[in-house]
Amino acid sequence: MKNRxxxxxxFLMILLISGTALAESSWPLSRPEEVGMDFQRLxxxxxLMAESLNRHDFPGAVILVVRxxxxxxxxxxxxSQLVPVAEPMKIDMLFDLASVTKPVATATAIMILVEQxxxxxxxxxxxxxxxxxxxxKEGGFPAEEARLxxxxxxxxxxxxxTDPEEVxxxxxxxxxxxxxxxxxxxxxxxxxxxxxxxxxxxxYITLAQIVKLVSGENLADFCQKNIFLPLKMKDTMFNxxxxxxxxxxxxxxxxxxxxxxxxxxxxxxxxxxxxxxxxLFSSADDLAIFAQMMLNKGEFKGIRILSxxxxxxxxxxxxxxxxxxxxxxWDLNTDYSTxxxxxxxxxxxxxxxxxxxxxxxxxxxxxxxxxxxxxxxxDDKGEIIAVRSKVANIVAGSIIKK
Length: 402
What we know:
By secondary structure, the protein is an alpha+beta fold.
């Protein structure tokens, strides 16, 4: 009994030191022991963050851990920015999610449209983007046309990226998503569809345009109406308004000024901040809501965003493309899956972002790990890959009762 009291008092002390208030969280913070986790094992996150900050892997971080519907860890570490002046990281700050935009916004929007009967994943990309040229085989013959599921799984044959300066010189700056997608569609495809997984932001920029063509709304408005507002994810949005800029974690310094509330990704920035590959800003608390919605098979606190079957299809490796290692929007088993660590199982899924953000969700243990950093601040030289794995290992290793 005394040992349990001691552990609880240590837990409260750490909360007070970190400035984490129970009332501020998305839902009440719980003791790890209530959901079969060992607090002392979980507290190794503090040591890991101290080591990472001392190595200057990143200026600061926020870690939030959910298990069995309860938040068991919610802390801010280090600095939100180093230049022009150092400022402390705060638990409710908004991060440029970078590629975490892909599953949270774009893929979810596509699946909602699938459920509404407005499109099929087997539809040809050219049905919506007539300019989308196929891969040309030896002898000059076109390969089979790419489908929407090829875009979702990064198996369309598109190259990883395209030169923003070339696009700007051709279409102007800012450039409409329509013009950018027309440019992407005309690019030479590097592989036949379905042959190999090649991670490409261009797939998801194309998907965002398809969302607009089918729904009549741009990706930001569609997601706000159909995902973020219903879930009360009040701090999740594209292009944060001026009143929220002070809560946005700055990223890279460009032209002498850190990007703050302005998307880091060049192609997303070229489009004015709304893009299918990047551009979403959010807080750890809001991502916890989204993660729990996924763990609940599409529902959170009585609000259903996706059907259970849609969640299942999104979070399993698509059988016709088993070598891709991808679900619809989510990473399950690719070279990018180091976010999983070494202990979570292969039914777990997640995604990472270039700016230093990541989310990993494990339905087998009902656990979600949200790890947000600003590793690109101020000079895009931060290191994050190994630390992500270690965060996941500490969280998974603290689960002592499944």
